[in-house]
Write a structure and sequence with these properties.
This protein has 260 residues and is α/β, with parallel strands linked by helices. The chain is 47% helix and 15% strand.
Length: 260
Amino acid sequence: MIDFTDKVVLITGGGSGLGRAAALSIAKQGAKLVLVDMNKASLEETKNEVLQASPEAAIELFEANVTNEEEVKNYVQFTVDTFGKIDGFFNNAGIEGKQNLTENYGSDEFEKVISVNLNGVFYGMKHVLKVMKEQGSGSIVNTASVGGIRGVGNQSGYAASKHGVVGLTRNSGVEYGEFGISINAIAPGAIMTPMVEGSLKQIGGDDWEAVGKEFVSVNPMKRFGKPEEVGNLVAFLLSDSSRFINASVINIDGGQSYKY
């Protein structure tokens, strides 16, 4: 059993998708939660779902833009001021961006995706690590992607940002292991989240569901992953049960990355 009793977990991108799924999983194990997102309404929806599933959960919300380092500092300080520490950090906020060939990929779009997916992850690690180093303990899980370990096509900004997340994860895991901090990344494949649905709609329009079926046909498990499957993995990686896993990237893609 994973036990988060008296543990404090901070989650960015907590308003939907993988952030919401992780919040639901971790709250069931007794954690105190701080959820961060730009969208207040989405945060409230997550909070309501968490409290329906775990009525005794302690949960706080914080609106912030992860591309703004000052706002990142503020959500970290809010967590410490509210609960006194940060035991776990799911550094998850991200966007996909528009799809296009590299030669046609907009420079502004590239910078936007890098700003959210890479700079935002870096800022979060930078300021949470200061807290965890002083504590002498902690666990961080960054959201990378299968697009961070191989090419995905038509997603230059996304692939570049997620490869960067993998690099940051491995480098920081090496740096901070001696301080009792584990730092890992997850590499989800096709998980049916609002972001993935939006991607399919970019490609297929009204026929996006048919595109989705074709997309997962190459997956050995022949289906989309469920957000809760990722949430459960994140809970394990943030728990005391996984302390010797460090500087690693864990695929959760149904075997997609290894199919010839």
